[in-house]
Specification:
Layout lengths: L5 H6 L12 E3 L10 E5 L10 E5 L6 H8 L2 H7 L2 E6 L22 H16 L6 E6 L1 H12 L6 E5 L20 H4 L7 H9 L11 E7 L8 H14 L3 E6 L6 E6 L5 E6 L10 H7 L4
Parallel strand pairs: 3-4, 3-5, 5-6, 6-7, 7-10
Antiparallel strand pairs: 1-2, 2-4, 8-9, 9-10
Helix pairs in contact: 7-8
Length: 294
C-alpha cells in the first residue's frame, strides 16, 4: 500500500451522473463494540424472507460512497433483497482485519459489529439467515475474507475485489496503508493452503461445518495491494472448501479477464484482470449471480 491516495483513485471510478435512492441511517441496532455506522438500502418491495448483502467500503471510504460505487440498487429492487452499507471511522476508515478481536468469533472487533447488523436485519425484516452475503473492495475485500472465515455460520458466500487472505494482516499494528505491516499488502506473506486454512479455522475453533463459497477479483497491475495476494486468497479458500484448481477460462467475463475455476466452479472462482490496477471495478451482475440474486 504505497505511492498513491486510495480515496482519490476510487473517486475517479464514481459516476456523478447516476441517480441513487436514499440510504436509511440506522441506530440502536445492537452491540457495537467499535462504533461502526450502519446505512441500509431497502428495495421498493421486500420479498418474503429477503436475502441480505453486506457491502464494505475501501480505505478512506464510507458506506454511502460505496453505495454509489457498487450500484446494486437495480438488482435489489428486482429481487427484493436488503443491502447494508456499513462505515468505519477508525484507522483512516479502514476495516480492522488485523486485531485478535476482529479475527476471533465474537471477539468484540469490527467483525462482531458487522455480524450484529446482520442479526438486527434478520430480526427486523424476517430475513433469510441462509442467504447472507458479503462483498467489498480493497479493505472491504479484506474484511469479506475475514467475515467468511470468522463467521462461516453466518455468511453463505462472498464476492470481492483487490483484497488479501483472511489472517494476512494478523498481528499488524493496523489495517490502513499508514498503519499496517507492509509485508501483507506487498504480497510477501506467502503460505501453503493448509497453513492459511489452519489459521482461518483457529478464528472459530468450534466450527465444524462447511465454509462459505468465495469469488475474488484482482488486477495484475495492482501495486497497492499486490496481485500476488490473489494466489494467497485462492490457496486459503481452496483448502477451506476442499476444491482444487480445474481450469482457466480466458476473456471471461470480458476481454483481458481470466476466470480461474476450482472444482466445478460452484464453490471457488478467481478472476485475474490483465493490466488492471487498484481496484478492479465492481461487477454487480457477477456479484449478484454468485449470490443467486441476479
Amino acid at each position: 500500500m504505497r505511492g498513491i491516495t486510495l480515496s482519490g483513485v476510487i473517486a475517479g471510478l464514481l459516476s456523478p451522473s447516476m441517480t441513487y435512492a436514499a440510504l436509511t441511517q440506522v441506530t440502536g441496532w445492537g452491540e457495537n463494540p467499535t462504533n461502526l455506522e450502519m446505512a441500509v438500502s431497502l428495495p421498493s418491495k421486500l420479498v418474503e424472507k429477503p436475502a441480505i448483502v453486506v457491502a464494505l467500503h475501501y480505505c478512506g471510504g464510507t458506506g454511502p460512497a460505496y453505495y454509489q460505487m457498487a450500484n446494486y440498487d437495480s438488482y435489489a429492487n428486482s429481487k427484493g433483497f436488503i443491502v447494508v452499507y456499513p462505515s468505519t471511522k477508525k484507522d483512516n476508515n479502514c476495516w480492522d482485519v488485523a486485531s485478535q478481536k476482529s479475527l476471533t468469533n465474537n471477539g468484540g472487533g469490527d467483525s462482531t459489529g458487522l455480524v450484529n447488523m446482520v442479526k438486527y436485519l434478520i430480526q427486523k425484516y424476517n430475513a433469510d439467515p441462509t442467504k447472507v452475503y458479503a462483498t467489498g473492495s480493497s479493505s472491504g475485500c479484506m474484511m469479506t475474507n475475514v467475515l467468511l472465515a470468522v463467521y462461516p455460520d453466518v455468511f453463505a458466500a462472498g464476492s470481492c475485489y483487490s483484497g488479501v487472505a483472511a489472517g494476512c494482516l494478523a498481528g499488524s499494528p493496523g489495517s490502513s496503508p499508514q498503519s499496517a505491516d507492509p509485508k501483507c499488502a506487498s504480497g510477501q506473506n506467502v503460505k501453503t493452503g493448509e497453513q492459511w486454512a489452519e489459521q482461518a479455522k483457529a478464528m472459530y475453533p468450534g466450527f465444524n461445518g462447511s465454509y462459505p463459497r468465495m469469488q475474488t477479483f484482482h488486477g495484475t497491475a495492482d501495486h497497492f495491494v499486490d496481485y500476488l495476494n490473489l494466489a494467497e486468497q485462492l490457496k486459503e479458500w481452496s483448502a477451506l472448501l476442499g476444491v482444487e484448481f480445474t481450469k482457466n477460462v480466458t476473456n471471461t467475463p470480458q476481454s483481458g479477464y481470466t476466470q480461474m475455476v476450482y472444482g466445478d466452479g460452484t464453490k471457488l472462482v478467481g478472476y485475474s484482470a490483465a493490466n488492471v490496477g487498484h481496484t478492479v471495478p465492481v461487477h454487480p451482475q457477477l456479484d449478484m449471480a454468485w449470490f443467486g440474486l441476479a
